[in-house]
UniProtKB/TrEMBL annotation:
This is Enamine deaminase RidA (YjgF/YER057c/UK114 family). Transmembrane segments: none annotated. It comes from Halomonas organivorans. Belongs to the RutC family. One of its GO terms (molecular function) is deaminase activity. PANTHER family: 2-IMINOBUTANOATE/2-IMINOPROPANOATE DEAMINASE RIDA, PROTEIN HMF1-RELATED. One of its GO terms (cellular component) is cytosol. InterPro entries: RutC-like_sf, YjgF/YER057c/UK114.
């Protein structure tokens, strides 16, 4: 019996036709009660870029993707414990973080933010990956400290 579940498997030949890649990946992995979500960008699951040149719109689409993947894995945004956000320009910090913050209001995850020279495609201005949990129905996962 598998110890984890792979969600939305794909091959990079389809995702990055402009690059000579042939890697088998997936959008999320559920391992026990932990969900790891691959970096999400402003592209929907049909491969259409949302928000060309607009970091806020790309962040909104990325968070829509995160929410959907967590749901498919049996979790939800409220169970995110860690985010890592990548932006390609420091000026994108406010619009991207405001949008991510709108989706995660009241969640209080730990967070890492990085400014990077570029992402896998030049039109991508931001990327976010998350780790979430699927709480045990009998446990109290809310902290008060």
């Amino acid at each position: 019996m598998p110890t984890h579940t792979r969600i939305r498997m794909f091959n990079t030949q389809e995702t990055y036709p402009n690059q000579a890649l042939d890697n088998d990946l997936c959008q999320a992995v559920r391992a026990g009660n932990t969900v790891y979500v691959r970096g999400q960008v402003g592209t929907d699951f049909e491969g259409r870029l949302v928000g060309l040149g607009d970091p806020q719109a790309q962040a909104e689409q990325a968070m829509k993707n995160v929410a959907q993947l967590l749901e498919e894995a049996g979790s939800e945004l409220g169970h995110i414990v860690k985010t890592t956000t990548y932006i390609t320009d420091p000026r994108f910090r406010e619009p991207v973080y405001r949008e991510v913050g709108r989706w995660l209001k009241g969640v209080f995850p730990i967070s890492t933010g990085l400014v990077v020279a570029g992402l896998a495609q030049p039109e991508w201005l931001m990327e976010i990956d998350v780790i979430a949990v699927i709480p045990d129905a009998s446990s109290d996962e809310e902290g008060t400290s």
